[in-house]
Amino acid sequence: MTQNPEQDVLSPLHDEHVALGAALTSFAGWQMPLRYSSDIAEHQAVRAAAGLFDLSHMGELWITGPEAAAGLDAALVGNLSAVTLGRARYTMICAEDGGVIDDLVVYRRGPERFLIVANASNVHVVREALLERLAGFDATLTDESLTTALVAVQGPRAEEILTGLTAAADVETVRSMPYYAAAEATVDGHAALVARTGYTGEDGFELFVPAAEAPALWRALLAAGEPLGLVPAGLSARDSLRLEAGMPLYGNELDRTTTPHDAGLGRVVKLDKVAADGSPLPFVGRAALEARAHASGARTLVGLVGLGRRAARHGYDLVASTEPDAPTVGTVTSGAPSPTLGHPIAMAYVTPELSAEGTELAVDVRGRREPVRVVALPFYRRPR
Q1: Same domain for 170 and 232?
Q2: One domain for residues 238 and 383
Q3: Largest Cα–Cα separation, the chain
Q4: Cα–Cα nearest to 123, from 141, 98, 96
Q5: One domain, residues 237 and 303
Q6: Among 147, 163, 280, 360, which residue's Cβ finds the most Cβ atoms within 10 Å?
Q7: Locate the GCVT N-terminal domain: which residues (predicted)?
Q8: Which residues are CB-contacts of 83 (< 8 A; sequence separation ≥ 6)?
Q9: DSSP 171
């Protein structure tokens, strides 16, 4: 991969995005497509048919060795040794005080092989933290972030599009793959790791391939999917889709000041992990997270629906009411108009006493108090 004069890393699909007329933006040190046509059109295509995303900015870290599983149990909040071969788990790497360093997806690719996918903005810090935490274990970390491309096909027609390009011997493997699983498959002649995971709230797949093979695979997926309604989709649509699905974004809903429990994700913290002798297994952040699990936090993440037409945005103040002197009671972490639902939606941190569904609050939208109501997350669930 190369860099542009601004020192952003260029995706292996950069020339494809330029050829498609994408609007490019700097994101986490990469030049990535923001949109190709319109944010709403790309969002709606994913909900109705399918979208094709370039996720090559994400990090791919391989952990291998006889003590890879034990090392990850000690390094992360999840119970990775319990993940069965071929499955994946959503987890987090936390600091000693319980703050989230990054949220991760970990794939078990063998008894001693794990693939960790980290957020682009955090690859370096996650890699360095893992190297430190794995130092006492017989395990090796290999960073393949810059030699691996990742593309995603997301939407209700994703399976149909992907299996149409999959080698006959692998079609049933892809079709029968459960959510949060992965398998090797040949797609349009390319050996790929195909995972049934995603960040849109829809069914879909993510395909890991060598960077040099990504352009040919991208073009094949576009050609196969276009008659079925697939469109290329950029970061903007990806963000509005994940917001509707109530999925957290690192730097918005998750950061070093936030514990998994604050974000309503305490389920990923496995305090029942035990060592070989049956004693509680120590992992980084355990003491702080155990204390937080048994106490009420100072804030909690909630969903908000706008009762007016103006949308809240990241960083806007959440206030107690529409009255001019109403006090600030929280901060919006993510917000946008919802193309699917037809009204504004947002997520925000509030104090526990204001977190009950139906609580009415307001958001300061550029000096105007817009009414909102607390609702359960997610805002959208795909039809089954």
Answers
A1: yes
A2: no
A3: 66
A4: 141
A5: no
A6: 163
A7: 13-273
A8: 89, 106, 108
A9: H
Domain match, 200 and 349 both: no
If pLDDT is split at 50, 70 and 90, which confidence band does 246 have? Answer: very high
Neighbours of 121 (CB within 10 A): 17
Beta carbons of 202 and 221 less than 8 angstroms apart: no
Q: What is the mean pLDDT of residues 229-233?
A: 98
Q: Domain ends where: 217, 244, 271?
A: 244
Judge whether 44 and 233 are in contact, CB under 8 Å: no
Q: Which two tokens stand for residue 153?
A: 């096909």
Question: What are the phi and psi torsion angles at 241 (to 5°)?
Answer: -65, -45
Q: Tell me which residue range forms the domain holding 379.
A: 297-384
Give per-residue pLDDT as tens, 45-80. 999 999 999 999 999 999 999 999 999 999 999 999
Structure tokens at 293: 């699990």
Return the pLDDT at 6: 57
What 189-193 contacts at long range (C-beta under 8 Å, 24+ apart), as own/partner pairs, is 190/216, 190/217, 192/217, 193/107, 193/109, 193/115
- Examine residue 286 and state whether it is found in any structural domain, yes or no: no
pLDDT beyond 70 at 319: yes
Q: Do 178 and 322 belong to one domain?
A: no
One domain, residues 53 and 182:
yes
Joined tokens for residue 339: 């193309």
Q: Which residue has the tokens 């035990």?
A: 274
Place of tokens 């390319």: 190
Omega of the bond prior to 378 within 30 degrees of 0, cis? yes
Look at residue 353 and tell me if it is in a domain. Answer: yes
Q: What CATH number is associated with residue 331?
A: 2.40.30.110
Residue 279 is which amino acid?
S
The binding site for substrate consists of: 206
- Residue 219: both structure tokens together: 């073009």
β pairing state of 182-187 and 148-154: unpaired
Q: How far apart are CA 38 and CA 101, in angstroms?
A: 33
In this predicted structure, what is the pLDDT of residue 4? 46
> Any idea what the CATH number is for the domain that residue 218 is in?
3.30.1360.120
Let me know if residue 343 belongs to a domain.
yes
Question: Mapping DSSP to helix (H, G, I), strand (E, B) and coil, where does residue 100 land?
Answer: strand
DSSP 134: T
**Phi, psi (rounded to 5 degrees) for 101:** -80, -40
Annotated binding site: 206
In 10 A of CB 21, how many CB atoms?
11
Domain count, the chain: 2
Sheet of 30-35: strand order equals 9-10, 30-35, 23-27
Reduce the DSSP state of residue 255 to 3 states and report it.
Answer: coil
Q: Look at residue 214 and tell me if it is in a domain.
A: yes
